[in-house]
Design goal:
- The protein is elongated and about 65 Å long.
- It has helices at residues 11-46, 50-74.
- The protein has two helices and no strands.
- With 85 residues, the protein is mainly α.
- 72% of the residues lie in helices and 0% in strands.
Length: 85
Protein backbone atom coordinates (compact mmCIF):
# COMPACT_ATOMS: atom_id res chain seq x y z
CA UNK A 1 0.00 0.00 0.00
CA UNK A 2 1.37 3.40 -0.92
CA UNK A 3 2.05 5.84 1.87
CA UNK A 4 0.56 9.23 1.01
CA UNK A 5 2.23 12.10 2.78
CA UNK A 6 1.00 15.40 1.34
CA UNK A 7 3.56 18.11 0.82
CA UNK A 8 2.65 21.74 1.38
CA UNK A 9 4.06 22.69 -2.02
CA UNK A 10 2.20 20.00 -3.99
CA UNK A 11 0.64 22.01 -6.87
CA UNK A 12 -2.07 19.45 -7.67
CA UNK A 13 -3.28 19.43 -4.09
CA UNK A 14 -3.38 23.21 -3.90
CA UNK A 15 -5.28 23.45 -7.21
CA UNK A 16 -7.75 20.87 -5.92
CA UNK A 17 -8.24 22.85 -2.70
CA UNK A 18 -8.87 26.08 -4.62
CA UNK A 19 -11.34 24.35 -6.95
CA UNK A 20 -13.21 22.86 -4.01
CA UNK A 21 -13.28 26.25 -2.29
CA UNK A 22 -14.71 27.93 -5.42
CA UNK A 23 -17.37 25.22 -5.75
CA UNK A 24 -18.24 25.56 -2.08
CA UNK A 25 -18.64 29.35 -2.43
CA UNK A 26 -20.87 28.85 -5.49
CA UNK A 27 -23.08 26.36 -3.63
CA UNK A 28 -23.45 28.66 -0.62
CA UNK A 29 -24.39 31.66 -2.79
CA UNK A 30 -26.86 29.45 -4.67
CA UNK A 31 -28.52 28.29 -1.46
CA UNK A 32 -28.93 31.86 -0.20
CA UNK A 33 -30.20 33.00 -3.62
CA UNK A 34 -32.81 30.25 -3.86
CA UNK A 35 -34.00 30.94 -0.30
CA UNK A 36 -34.35 34.66 -1.06
CA UNK A 37 -36.14 34.02 -4.37
CA UNK A 38 -38.61 31.58 -2.80
CA UNK A 39 -39.35 33.96 0.05
CA UNK A 40 -39.86 36.97 -2.20
CA UNK A 41 -42.05 35.13 -4.70
CA UNK A 42 -44.14 33.44 -2.00
CA UNK A 43 -44.79 36.67 -0.15
CA UNK A 44 -45.42 38.58 -3.37
CA UNK A 45 -47.90 36.20 -4.99
CA UNK A 46 -49.35 34.04 -2.20
CA UNK A 47 -49.89 36.47 0.67
CA UNK A 48 -51.36 39.92 1.13
CA UNK A 49 -47.84 41.26 1.88
CA UNK A 50 -47.38 42.02 -1.81
CA UNK A 51 -44.25 43.11 -3.61
CA UNK A 52 -43.00 45.49 -0.94
CA UNK A 53 -43.40 42.97 1.87
CA UNK A 54 -41.63 40.30 -0.18
CA UNK A 55 -38.84 42.68 -1.09
CA UNK A 56 -38.23 43.71 2.52
CA UNK A 57 -38.26 40.10 3.70
CA UNK A 58 -35.95 39.11 0.85
CA UNK A 59 -33.41 41.80 1.72
CA UNK A 60 -33.49 40.83 5.40
CA UNK A 61 -33.11 37.13 4.54
CA UNK A 62 -30.30 37.89 2.07
CA UNK A 63 -28.33 39.86 4.65
CA UNK A 64 -28.91 37.21 7.33
CA UNK A 65 -27.92 34.47 4.89
CA UNK A 66 -24.76 36.33 3.93
CA UNK A 67 -23.61 36.66 7.52
CA UNK A 68 -24.70 33.16 8.58
CA UNK A 69 -23.63 31.12 5.56
CA UNK A 70 -21.18 33.00 3.35
CA UNK A 71 -19.15 35.37 5.50
CA UNK A 72 -18.37 32.66 8.05
CA UNK A 73 -16.49 30.55 5.49
CA UNK A 74 -14.66 33.49 3.86
CA UNK A 75 -12.47 33.80 6.93
CA UNK A 76 -11.17 30.25 6.53
CA UNK A 77 -7.58 30.11 5.23
CA UNK A 78 -7.08 28.41 1.89
CA UNK A 79 -3.88 26.69 2.99
CA UNK A 80 -4.56 23.13 4.10
CA UNK A 81 -1.88 23.09 6.77
CA UNK A 82 -2.83 26.29 8.58
CA UNK A 83 -3.64 25.91 12.28
CA UNK A 84 -7.32 26.14 13.15
CA UNK A 85 -8.56 24.80 9.84
Amino acid sequence: MADFTPQQSDPELLVHERTYHAFSVFVRWSIVGVAVALTVLTLWFATPAGFLGGLIAGVVLGVAGYFAVIRHEQHQPLDLWTEGR
